[in-house]
Design brief:
seven-stranded mixed sheet, five-stranded mixed sheet, Rossmann fold, binds nicotinamide-adenine-dinucleotide, 472 residues, single chain, alpha/beta, 12 strands
């Protein structure tokens, strides 16, 4: 599947141009939206545990400052390159616009395979990368706020916030310089599973649309749907888990070492633990090993969810994909050629830049928490519980009936931080799904949901630029 001439940024530009035709904006504004405003490529040395010195290549791209700060994860992968980071940064701009998160797009990349470095080496690399960003003013709660991405997680974010805070003594909002932090370092509850939960909410909303389900020949709802997930990392694991909990059947899982299937359904936690203990997803009891890790993508199923990396379905294997609905949990898993094939076959593709926006949405909540210096729910939880108790007491007194104890707990419960984060995310994903679908339905010439999503994004970003008045 690896095509040396493939440009991820080129693919994003292609999708953008396809959608721009359905908007009214002049060429100059569209060119400004498309361009990456700033690209910072850096090199720095790190001393390995064996005493040797290695030069590390890394990037931070700020795609758009139409809203600030810029926002986007940091990828740790051996394949990181400028084209990829630029593409991911631009997707962040469109993603934030679609889900009404007031940030511009950004992205970072460090060209290392984290599996080949010790924790101490990774800490040195992450801290040095942060220091380089600080030197060039490429990080800060009001300028540019990184987050986790492929190959990075809470641990790396903790190193970043610690380095930033150490170099900005007394800066009261310093914790807002990065999101995806552990809760003890200013993180928000619910961030870890946010992207997967957002993917679930987004796909569930589409599955609840009778007209779309009728077109795809599937019953309404998630329950009983046969699902294939590629990638059992942060996004893939949580997505699979939320689908399983909602009554869907995970019939296949793919990891980089191979893929497994069981038409009766796989238990996501058991597979996860099996991989943790044995080092491989293969040979899971009751499941069948597939010859190649990409074979899972071509299985008969209702929903395919690529949640690993970009460019995994292209013009070559797309004709063999049998799913009716594809949810892009990863960024850029489908090439434009694959998109064309699916549009012709009537397969609906729910596009990455909106579907995996749960991470950035909850990152926004985390950033707001950091700036307000108070945990969500702290002020009102007890007040609401007392009030609910009082109302319930009045109702019971007036009706002479008692509410069952399980219902009582549910009614009285005041929202905790995680309740509010889940609820804010659910509302965000549901509204975004309808905005995109309404755009698609309003213009039947729009060929697919991705193009509709781009139209929504372009209109919002262009409006911001136009209202700035710099383009008379
Ligand atoms: P991760 O590192 O936690 O997990 C990725 C998983 O994919 C790993 O387990 C890896 O082994 C597996 N993998 C790699 N190559 C594979 C292959 N060829 N076949 C099958 N599995 C393979 O990364 P993540 O954070 O889950 O990110 C996954 C995707 O989601 C990326 O495209 C990322 O940009 C996107 N994304 C992540 C977030 C987030 O909050 N983490 C938010 C938005 C989008």
């Amino acid at each position: 599947m690896s095509d040396k001439n493939y440009s991820f940024f080129g693919a994003v530009e292609k999708s953008f141009d396809k959608a721009a035709k359905f908007t009214k904006w002049e060429k100059g504004i569209l060119e400004q939206i498309k361009a990456c405003n700033a690209v910072y490529q850096m090199r720095f040395p790190v001393k390995r545990d064996d005493g040797s010195i290695e030069v590390i290549e890394a990037y931070r791209v700020q795609h758009s400052q139409h809203k600030t700060p810029c926002k986007g994860g940091i990828r740790f992968a051996a394949e990181v390159n400028q084209d990829e980071v630029m593409a991911l940064a631009s997707l962040m701009t469109y993603k934030c616009a679609i889900v009404n998160v007031p940030f511009g797009g950004g992205k970072g990349g460090i060209k290392v395979n984290p599996r080949k470095y010790s924790a101490y080496e990774l800490e040195k690399i992450t801290r040095r990368y942060t220091a380089e960003l600080i030197k060039k003013n490429f990080i800060g709660p009001g300028t540019d706020v990184p987050a986790p991405d492929y190959g990075s997680g809470e641990r790396e974010m903790a190193w970043i916030v610690d380095t930033y805070t150490a170099m900005h003594p007394g800066e009261i909002d310093a914790a807002g310089c990065v999101t995806g932090k552990p809760v003890s370092q200013g993180g928000v509850r619910g961030r870890r599973e946010a992207t997967g939960l957002g993917v679930f909410f987004g796909i569930r909303e589409v599955c609840n649309m009778p007209d779309i389900m009728q077109k795809l020949g599937m019953p309404v709802g998630v329950e009983g749907k046969k699902i294939v997930v590629q990638g059992l990392g942060n996004v893939g694991y949580h997505t699979a888990k939320f689908f399983q909990d909602a009554g869907a059947k995970i019939i296949a899982l793919a990891e980089y070492e191979g893929s497994i299937t069981n038409p009766a359904g796989l238990d996501v936690d058991e597979v996860f633990n099996h991989r943790k203990n044995s080092g491989s997803i293969l040979n899971f009891p009751g499941a069948t090993n597939l010859a190649k890790n990409t074979d899972a993508l071509e299985l008969e199923c209702d929903i395919l969810i690529p949640a690993a990396l970009e460019n995994v379905v292209d013009g070559e294997n797309a004709p063999r994909v049998k799913a009716k609905l594809i949810g892009e949990a990863a960024n850029g898993p489908l090439t434009p050629e694959a998109d064309e094939i699916f549009a012709q076959k009537g397969i609906v593709v729910i596009p990455d830049m909106y579907l995996n926006a749960g991470g950035v949405t909850v990152s926004y909540f985390e950033w707001l928490k950091n700036l307000s210096h108070v945990r969500y729910g702290r002020m009102e939880k007890r007040f609401n519980e007392n009030m609910n108790m009082h109302i319930l007491g009045q109702i019971e007194g007036l009706t002479g009936k008692k509410v069952a104890s399980r219902d009582r707990e549910y009614i009285v419960h005041g929202a905790d931080e995680v309740d509010l984060v889940y609820s804010g995310l659910e509302e965000t994903m549901i509204s975004a799904t309808h905005e995109i679908m309404n755009e698609w339905k309003a213009n039947p010439a729009i060929p697919d949901m991705r193009t509709a999503a781009y139209v929504v994004a372009i209109n919002k970003v262009a409006t911001t630029y136009a209202e700035l008045g710099i383009f008379p």
